[in-house]
Amino acid sequence: MKDDPGTGFSFEQIDGIVNARSLAIVGASIKPGKFGTLLTASQLAMGFTGPVYLVNPAGGEIHGRTVYSDLGSLPETPDLVAVAVPAQYSIPILRDCARMGVKGVIMVAAGFRDAGPEGTALEQEAIRVAHDGGVRIIGPNCFGIYNPRNRLTLTPGQDFSTVPGDVAFLSQSGGYSAHVARLGKSLGLTFRAVVSYGNGSDLDESDFLRYFGRDPGTSVIAGYLEGSRDGRKFLEALDEAASRKPVVLWKVGKGEAACRAVSSHTGAIAGSHSVWNAALRRRGVVQVEGVDELCDVLLALKHLGTRPGKRILFTAGGGGLGTFAADLAEAEGLEIPPLGGPAATGLREMLTGAGAVAGNPLDFGTPMVPLPLFESILRAAASNTSTDLLLLDLAVNFAMLLGGAEGMFRVAEIVGRVRREIGRPMAVVLYSRACDPDDLEPERIIRRMRSILQEHSIPVFPSLPRAMRSISRVNFASVY
Hints:
Elements: H1 11-18, E1 23-26, H2 35-46, E2 52-55, E3 61-62, E4 65-68, E5 80-83, H3 90-100, E6 104-107, H4 117-132, E7 136-138, E8 144-147, E9 152-153, E10 164-171, H5 174-187, E11 191-196, H6 205-214, E12 220-225, H7 231-242, E13 247-251, H8 256-266, H9 273-282, E14 286-287, H10 291-304, E15 312-316, H11 319-331, H12 341-350, E16 362-363, H13 371-382, E17 389-393, H14 396-422, E18 426-429, H15 441-455, E19 460-461, H16 464-475
Parallel strand pairs: 1-2, 1-5, 2-4, 5-6, 6-7, 10-11, 10-12, 12-13, 13-14, 15-16, 15-17, 17-18, 18-19
Antiparallel strand pairs: 3-4, 8-9, 8-11
């Protein structure tokens, strides 16, 4: 059952908004510094698949498109209306939407519940008007929706990817919704949709958890959460979503100062951190801290899945890295077990150079060995049965001096080929130690290597601690 009349939840309603077929932007503008200008430019650049109507009382044209003076002048009723005008001017626009039969309204402006008693009263009036007219609201105080399937981006981002994926991200913060969408493009993460819902005065985190939990095209749900006005409703929605697919949440508002910031930002109730932590942990939610860790975990889930295994075989070109990796693994609840059996025997026969160690951690003794030997070592390590996952630290700055850029690209191709042919899960750590501001070559090499590796379903992390933490997080997630 996709709809739940008892809670007021309707999958069909939300789906009609997220996958809107027509759109109007009220407050469309070309004046610098206005949200209407930013949203208009982003949406037109993205190339929405349906008609986009620009509305502003001044009329005229914007980017060669006709500007209508009001919603009533439009040639049709749009599915979705983005309201990018100050809070005090929003109620008449909502009345027009209700009269016309608009499905959904995204209210961008702040100045509602987040602004104190007067703003709270204005928000309550907005909800009354919308509900009386059968209109659902996202916001206020939000960016709205980014959906690459219909090229919808009311989140500022004309440079967002247009490649659809299976990750859903919901966020009380507009800024973080744009940040995660933009980071995702560079990391190879693709989205089903990103929804910034701000104050959540009508449709809130619980509704979107239920929606994406029931959406067959969503495989992973992630979110930035400040709090919830209805804890029971949220936990019921979380129970449902987390029983169907992995849920990754970044919950903020732990300390007194953070709670004050949450209240002034979206008017949410942050609640006790210990209570939140226990509730999320009990439901198998993957808890993260910060946008980098959130994206790292999403990468790990995409390429490694849930519970890829805790037994890691770590390889690097230096003994110090191996010792560091062993400490990190233990701290994160992972293991670096000793090697044994045929794999250990074969590695000992291949690693005969000074400083090389045919164990776990596996030390090449040098940042770069001849590529045929590297592939043989990698195949032996990947075939080892006493470990679950192979983690490689590829020392780009050192190795590129020995093998050059083309040599590093060939290394990435070899790793990808071994991953594909043997099927052993792998992850790679790539980073630059270049300090000269003009030395951009390592960064160019890393970006190209990352692209090659991701094509072979190998996640790439910028540091060893971030790799270990992400592997640990997905290993302690629930299995679906």
